[in-house]
Amino acid sequence: MTDIHNPKLDPHPSGNTEKDPSDWVSGDDAMTGAQASYLKTLSESLDAPEAFQDDLTKAEASKRINDLKGRQSD
After folding, report:
1. Distance between CA atoms of 60 and 4, rounded to whole angstroms?
2. End-to-end CA distance of the chain, in Å?
3. What burial class does residue 54 get, using C-beta atoms within 10 Å of its C-beta: 0-12 exposed, 13-18 middle, 19+ buried?
4. Do residues 38 and 64 make contact, with C-beta atoms less than 8 angstroms apart?
5. What is the pTM of this model?
6. Residue 15 placed within a domain
7. Number of domains forming the structure of the chain
8. Range of the domain at 31
9. Vertex 55: Cα angle to 52 and 60 (nearest 5)
10. How many CB atoms lie within 10 A of CB 11?
């Protein structure tokens, strides 16, 4: 049997698994339904309704979600 590297078993993900949303190829596409739902939930739970807008791009939604998640731990 040959030893084949399995990246799923690595203790830490490789460095290219996270990319700045500004660098996403599809970052200018409309946010996904999942992003819209999660952003709406976060904005309501943190009493920040201004954080949700229907016309956000994927990249903008991701940044806002990350910002709101950061506020949760404050």
Report:
1. 39
2. 51
3. exposed
4. no
5. 0.69
6. no
7. 1
8. 27-74
9. 70
10. 4
DSSP code at position 12: S
Q: How many residues does the chain have?
A: 74
Does residue 9 lie in a domain region? Answer: no
Q: pLDDT confidence of 52, banded at 50, 70, 90? A: very high
Alpha-carbon distance of 36 to 45, in angstroms, equals: 14
Q: Is residue 12 part of a domain?
A: no
- How many angstroms separate the CA atoms of 36 and 43, rounded? 10
Strands (E), the chain: none
pLDDT bin (cut points 50, 70, 90) of residue 17 is low
